[in-house]
Input
Amino acid sequence: MENRQVVSLARFKRSVGIHVSIAGKVDLAVDRALELGCIGTFQIFTCSPRRWTAKPLDEPQAELFQEKASRSKFAPVAHMPYMPNLASPDGKFHSESVDVLIREIKRCGALGISGLVVHYGSHMGSSIEDGHARIVSACKKAIGSTQGSNVRILLENSAGTRNSVGSKFEDVRNVLDCIGDEKRTGVCFDTCHAFASGYDLRTTESAQKTILEFDETVGLERLFLIHVNDSKADIGEGRDRHEHIGLGKIGDKGFRSFFALKELIDIPLVLETPIDQKLGDKENVAHAKKLLDLE
Ligand SMILES: [Zn+2]
Ligand SMILES: [Zn+2]
Output
């Protein structure tokens, strides 16, 4: 009986959200997260993800965002825009990318967001070592330029597409070690990316084995966020193709097994499922909650 109480309490605390739009005004993201059934967390882009420039944040709107988020007990996270490539071998492109990273850390600070999801990027054919060196120097520069900030850079494991950096747990560990600032860095584990780069999540045994390997290589204490996405591509195919929860190659059985891992019970979950005719965001959140036994 006592054990059961502990479990249900832990489940009650579980955070599950989805990526939501800030269209119109940034604080509207909080209303959208509530409407979609998010509990405890959601993710935003602080600006248009396909542009290099960002309109300065409107201060009253940023304050309202913080107020609304805290009223609804949300700890939101943000995702870097898509254009920058922090592993780029091109000096100018790299330094412009670092500028965006610094800007986004500052914007997160103004919005009361403490986690910024960052892609390792592509080495564009130079070499994996060069890619590592580039992402390490980018993060070091950004951390150095934002001293005193409590925004944590959450490096997201990649799907292992051509030239991508950060698909293997060893690489993730290596990069974190070289940056060397544990207070300002951490990992966002994307289920679709892990699966696409060869880590199995389809059964209780394989999900357990993957998380054990992550713990031994990177360390679960470095894990701050999980991106919950099913995968259109099969295991090890190295393709980044998100699918609705349960409709991809990981499937309901895989997610049920993954969600049941007690090691992950405190880690917030954020969905980045596709926008298409098949299913809506609300249905995906509800389905994830069902697999989490939250509904
Ligand atoms: Zn992701
Ligand atoms: Zn992806």
In short: The two ends are 21 Å apart (CA to CA). Confidence is low (pLDDT under 50) at residues 1-11. The pocket of zinc ion (ligand 2) is lined by residues 190, 192-193, 240, 242 (CB under 6 Å).
